[in-house]
Amino acid sequence: MPVQTNNTNAPGSWSPDQVSSHVFTDVLGDALYNSLTTVVGSIQGDQPSIRVPVVTDSKSADFVPEGATIPEVEPSLDEVVLQTRKIAVTSAISNEQASQGTTPAQIAASLKRDIVRKLDQALLTQAAPGVGEIAPSVGILNTLGIIEGDPLVSDLDPLVDLISQLEANFANPRVLLVDPLAKAALFRLKTDVAASNVGLLSPATSTPTSPILGLQMIVSPFMPANSGLIVDPSNIVSATSTVDVAQSTDARFYEDAVVYRVVTRCGHAVVHADRLAKLSIGVAADD
C-alpha cells in the first residue's frame, strides 16, 4: 500500500502549505455496544473465553401449608460463552505530513471512528460464524428465534403489541433502534391520517423530547432500511476492550513514514432470543 504523501494522493489542505486549522471533523456517537449490551468483561486473544452463568427461572414457587415440607426445585443452570475477535486498521503518512499541526490527532481520530463504525456493523448484522465456531459473534438481527412483529405503517399499534409480547416473555425493553428512514417514517405519523398535519409523536417541526412508548430511540445507519429493533440491554452480554491507538516511526523507516494503528476487540451473545424483537417501519411487509 503506498504511503500517503504531500504531492501525490493527499488533498491540498493536508499538505505542508500553511493551513490555519483542520476544520473538518466527522463526529460519531458512542459505539452501540455501550447502549445495547451489558459489558461483562474484557479478554485478550482469540482463544480465551468468558463464561457467563445463566439461571433459567423455574416458575415453581407456590403456597405451602404451615408445617409442610417445602418442595425442592433443582435450578436450571446454563451459561453463555463469549469469545472476542480483533478489529484493527492501520494507516501510513510521510513524516513531513505528520509534522503539520493537528494531522496526527486528526488521523488517529478518523481511524478510531472507522473502528467504531465496524463495531456497530458487527453488533447488528455480522454473519453467523462457521460450524463449531462462536466468533465473530453473529449480529443481533441475524439471531435465530428473534420475534418479528407486524409492519408499522400508519400508527404505533404494532410497536405496542411487540412491547407487550416482550414483557410477557419477561424482557425489560429499553431501546428502540431504527435506521434514518424508519426515524423519518415515525416522525411523519399524524394524529389523523386523512387530514391532520399534527405529528403523532411531536409537532412536525421538532424532535420528540420524550421516549417513544417508554423506549429510548437511537438512530443507526447500520440498521437495514425502514426497520426497527427493540432491545433489552440486560439480555445481550458482551466483552469489549478499549480502542487502543499506537504509532511507529520504525515500521516504514526507509520511507521516512509514520504508521498509525488502531485496535480493539469485541464479542457478544444474546441470552434469550425471544426477548428481542424487530419490525419494519414505514413500509408494508410486501413492499
UniProtKB/TrEMBL annotation:
Coiled coil stretches, renumbered: none
Compartment(s) where it occurs, according to its Swiss-Prot or TrEMBL record: Virion
InterPro entries, A to Z: Phage_capsid, Phage_capsid-like_C
Residue ranges constituting the Phage capsid-like C-terminal domain according to the UniProt record: 34-280
The name this protein goes by in its record: Phage capsid-like C-terminal domain-containing protein
